Amino acid sequence: AVVFPEIYATKNLFPGGNKNAWKGFYASKIKVILPPEFKNNNADKRTEFDAENLILDNLGVSGNFTAKNIIDKGSAIGWQFKVDEVKVKIDVNRLTAGSFKGAIKPGAISSYLAFDGLITPETYRLTVKVDKADMNMFKGKLVFKKDSWVKMEVDKEKEQFRAEAFLNGWLNISDTSKTSPTDSLAKGNKI
């Protein structure tokens, strides 16, 4: 049975108001895996696309779409990032919802931080899960409290990302020069 988006019923989009008079193409599930030649630079996994409840008719395209293993090495405001998965819901050619997952690597941090993103018709933003990270410049480890976050949102006027962060936790710094105990940097400094 065809699974129609809710808008078909609420906006009376069926011909003559009759659901049985609908004509078009429907697929409950489609999966496309790109050939190995199209894989990401450093990813072992191939890019794949899924569609559920795909409808093609005279009103346009509707369905739930997922893309996996999309970007392995991207850049946003100078921060490296990768996108593992993007999901979007399209109803009659209009984006109605979506989400994305991946990881981002801020400049001073040597490890990636996982993120979850939200896609709406107006914008898209991501929130980074911050727990701990290695800092290149201090030869140390940052340990963040659970209330820490990093957010990036698209600035449509400037056509670029805008970032902000709230980081709360500890910074452990180690002295690798082994000079003397008095020259060592303190451990456990609060940030």
Explain the overall architecture.
It is a single chain. It contains one helix and 13 strands; from the N terminus they run αβββββββββββββ. It is an all-beta fold. The strands form two sheets. The chain has a nine-stranded antiparallel sheet, with no helix packed on it. The chain has a four-stranded antiparallel sheet with strand order 8-9-12-13, with no helix packed on it. A hairpin with a 4-residue loop joins strand 6 (113-119) and strand 7 (124-129). The longest helix has 5 residues, at 6-10.
Topology:
Blueprint: H1 6-10, E1 25-33, E2 48-57, E3 60-76, E4 79-91, E5 94-105, E6 113-119, E7 124-129, E8 132-135, E9 140-144, E10 149-155, E11 160-166, E12 169-173, E13 189-190
Antiparallel strand pairs: 1-2, 2-3, 3-4, 4-5, 5-6, 6-7, 7-10, 8-9, 9-12, 10-11, 12-13
Give the key terms.
9-stranded antiparallel beta sheet, 4-stranded antiparallel beta sheet, mainly beta
How would the global form be characterised?
A: elongated
Total count of helical runs of at least 4 residues = 1
Quickly give the structural class: mainly beta
State the end-to-end distance.
57 Å
Largest sheet: 9 strands, antiparallel
Kindly state the number of beta strands. 13
Name the helix and strand elements from N-terminus to C-terminus, one letter apiece. Answer: HEEEEEEEEEEEEE
Taken as a percent bin, the fraction of beta residues is: over 45%
Radius of gyration: 23 Å
Share of helix among residues? under 10%
What strand order characterises the main sheet?
1-2-3-4-5-6-7-10-11
Mean pLDDT across every amino acid position: 80
List segments where confidence is low: pLDDT < 50 over at least 5 consecutive residues: 180-186
